[in-house]
Amino acid sequence: MSQNDPVLYASQGPVAEITLNRPGKLNAITADMVPLLHDAMDQAEADPKVRAIVLRGAGRSFSAGFDLGELDASPSREEMCKVLAEDFAVIMRFWNAPKPTLSLVQGYALGGGFELAMACDVTLAADTAIFGEPEPKFGSGIVALLLPWLTGPKQAKEMLLFGNDRVPAHRAYEMGLINRVLPEAELGQAGQDMAMQAALLDATALRLTKTAINQTYRHMGFDPAMAQALDLDLEIETSQSAESQAFKTILARDGVKAALAWRAAKFAAAPVADANS
Fold first, then answer.
1. Is residue 147 part of a domain?
2. Model-level pTM?
3. Domain count along the chain
4. pLDDT (tens digit, 9 = 90+) per residue, 21-72?
C-alpha cells in the first residue's frame, strides 16, 4: 500500500485505522474508493488482533462527501440504482461491523462523509468541525438516512428541508450527533484512547451487545425505513424536472459555484457557499 493511495489502512496493536486520503479534495469519496473501503473493513474485521476500528480523514477535513465531479447529468435508472446501492452498503459497513467503530472528525463532514461519520458507533469531533447534508441543494437525496434516527425530527427537518447544512460541532453535540467535542490537536490521541478502551472489553460480549443495540433499531423499523429512504433517493436522482436537469447539466459542465449561482439567480439571492469552493 502506497501513502498516496486514496484509502489507507494501518493497525497498531488492537486498533485498526482507516484513513480517507484525498486531502487536496477534502477527502471527497470517489467510486474507486468504495471497494477500497470495503477491503479495509474486510481486513479489520477478519484480523483477530483488531478489536476496534477508527475512521478518519487526512488533512484539514474528514470528508466533503461523494465526489460531485463524478456526477452524471443524466444517469440511467439502472446505473444510478447500482451507484446508490454501493454507496449505501459502504456507509452501513461501519454501522453493522461486528467490532466497534469510531470516527474522528475535523473540518467538514458533509453529505456521504457526514453519513460515514454518523454510521460509526462513536464520533469525536474537533471544535472546528462542521457537519451537514447539502444534497437537497444539489437536487440529490440522502444515501443513508441515519439523521432522523440519531436526532429528533425537528432537527433533522431543519437540516434537510431548510438548508441548515453547516452545523458547528457544539450544535451537533447538542443534537446528539456526536459524542464529544475537543480541540483538534487532541482529536487523534482521544480517538486512540477511546479505541483502546473498547479493545480492553470482552470481545464476545462487546460484539453481542452491539448486535443487541442494532436489533433494537431493527425492531423499531430501522431496516425497512432505510431501504425505503434509499428507494426515494433513487427517485430523486433520476427525476427529470426541468430545474433538476438544468442544474445537473450546469454542475457537470461548469462546477458547483456556477450551478448554485444559476439557481440563486432564479430567486435573486446570493449563492450559498460550498465546502468544495
1. yes
2. 0.91
3. 1
4. 999 999 999 999 999 999 999 999 999 999 999 999 999 999 999 987 776 6
CA 71/CA 244 separation, integer angstroms: 13
Measure Cα distances from 162 to 2, 130, 132, 139 in Å.
Answer: 42, 17, 12, 14
Check residues 269 and 121 and name the one with the higher pLDDT.
121
Q: Would you say residue 266 lies in a domain?
A: no
Q: Does 172 fall in a domain?
A: yes
Are 34 and 91 a contacting pair, CB within 8 Å?
no
Q: How many CB atoms lie within 10 A of CB 217?
A: 14
Q: What is the CATH number of the domain that holds 158?
A: 3.90.226.10
Rounded to an integer, what distance in angstroms lies between the CA atom of residue 211 and that of residue 79? Answer: 33
- Residue 59: exposed, middle, or buried by beta-carbon count in 10 A (0-12, 13-18, 19+)? middle
Q: What is the pLDDT of residues 104-141, one digit of tens each?
A: 999 999 999 999 999 999 999 999 999 999 999 888 89
- Rounded to 10 degrees, the C-alpha dihedral 129/22/162/130 comes to 0
Instruction: Check: CB of residue 125 under 8 Å from CB of residue 172.
Output: yes
Q: In 3-state terms, what secondary structure has residue 91?
A: helix
Catalytic, out of 115, 133, 135, 237: 135
CB of 117 within 8 A of CB of 169?
no
Q: What is the DSSP string of 203-255?
A: HHHHHHHHHHHHHHHHHTTHHHHHHHHHHHHHHHHT---HHHHHHHHHHHHH-
Range of the domain at 80: 7-203
135 is annotated as an active-site residue: yes
Give DSSP secondary structure letters for 109-146. Answer: EETHHHHHHHHSSEEEEETT-EEE--GGGGT---SS--
Residue 130 lies in a domain: yes
